[in-house]
């Protein structure tokens, strides 16, 4: 049960000596309970949409943190970062090819295939324009990023950059705009 509804239910039960079930349909208390339920549903919906929006950046940060740990948590040069970016951009290619092969000839692409194509296209476009990654070229930032435990709020302490295809690096802010 959600928090607002729980508190409201408790207050009403206290006022009615524990009998919350014996409410009239249009009473003030039943209206309070409905409002609390709607508010909790709205908050859950907002939280789930926010986590859906944050998930790709968390996956990206996890990927680069794992790659950094494999290389010994030392600052990386731009060409190594570009290789990591290229690997990240093309990580859905195998799955896309597998979905394409399973489709029968003459059939339209499945929803999964469409989503994968959109994701791959967006990643390739971002790679051309400037890929959003943690700054792995400075030792202080590498140390800070290595201590990241998976929370969204900690990522704001890490400095982020955009690395373009022509190896230009531009500082950026988190979360990206």
Characterization of the model:
By secondary structure, the chain is mainly alpha-helical. The protein has a single domain, classed as Translation machinery-associated protein 16-like (de novo design (two linked rop proteins)), CATH 1.20.1440. Helix content is 59%, strand content 7%. It has helices spanning 3-15, 28-70, 78-89, 93-102, 111-129, 139-146; strands at residues 131-134, 160-163, 169-172. A 3-stranded antiparallel sheet has the order 1-2-3. Helix 1 (3-15) packs antiparallel against helix 2 and helix 4 (93-102) packs antiparallel against helix 5. Belongs to the TMA16 family. It comes from Sodiomyces alkalinus (strain CBS 110278 / VKM F-3762 / F11) (Alkaliphilic filamentous fungus).
Annotate the secondary structure layout.
Blueprint: H1 3-15, H2 28-70, H3 78-89, H4 93-102, H5 111-129, E1 131-134, H6 139-146, E2 160-163, E3 169-172
Antiparallel strand pairs: 1-2, 2-3
Under the CATH scheme, the architecture is Up-down Bundle
Structural class: mainly alpha
The CATH homologous superfamily: Translation machinery-associated protein 16-like
- Spans of at least 5 consecutive residues whose pLDDT stays below 50 are none
Q: Count of helices?
A: 6
CATH top level? Answer: Mainly Alpha
Name the assembly state. Answer: single chain
Give the N-to-C terminal Cα separation: 35 Å
Q: Rough shape? A: flat
Number of domains: 1
| Strand order, largest beta sheet | 1-2-3
CATH topology category name: de novo design (two linked rop proteins)
Number of strands: 3
